[in-house]
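note to self: dont lose this again. the chain is below, predicted strucutre after it. 297 aa total, dont forget to put it in the shared folder this time
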Amino acid sequence: MGVVFDIQRFSVHDGPGIRTTVFLKGCPLSCAWCHNPEGIAPRPEVVLAPGRCVRCGTCAEACPEAQDGVAAVPTAPARCRRCGVCVEACPAGARRMAGRDLTPGEVVSEIARDRVFYEESGGGATFSGGEPLLQPDFLLKLLDGCGAEGIHTALDTCGHAPRERVLEAGARADLVLFDLKSPDPERHRAATGVDNVLILGNLRALAEAGAALWLRVPVIPGFNDDDEGALATARLAASLGTVRRVSLLPYHPLGRHKGAPAAHALLAAEPVSPAPARLEALARLYRERGLEVHIGG
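---
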């Protein structure tokens, strides 16, 4: 069994062609700009979208762990049983369960439903998260299951996992989408909670193993949108030899509006999305080094 928090069909930003993207729970990073905050914790949990809450109190009436007229989520998530009673009771749809237990066969069957679209567009399945390498056995079964069905696979990873795990999954996937935040270890630690020594080592190991790589670089104003940082990333990408494409992903506030467990903090101050002219200037640094660059997924 594995824990999946979303299966998104007809995705066009997570690899070539039309794809089904499977989002696995759990992530070792805590990126300040996280677009999928509901994927950080490894187990299923109740997620609250505050903008939808009408403060009617129905959740507290339903919650078996409510205290003083307040439901366990968001004020005391440690008490939450993850029973989903408050989710079913909420009349405004402000609550949902993030994560469900599925077998590899169930997931592969869901993916195979859209086989005709993959065949016509050159698409397939992408395994994302969270960080899919935190569920290694489940991930390998998914990759093998899709391979047996003749479905193209892509692994979307931050690269923060044991080397052997990264290389084994990378060898079974047809494509690796490697999320590269910054080559600077201190800058990386400040924004994600971990340094990037393991990440960069795994990236180089994948390249040496001949993995087909697409680099995905989130462009976050005030973090990595300066010329010096972008140039260092472009030089690293050009040195690897197996990078087929670089995607510059402009910051957007999706994560702030999706709702998240109370324990997960997002950006304290909302940055602005990078201007198109700035994105083009950054893309030029990569193109000057012979790399194919796309703005967006």
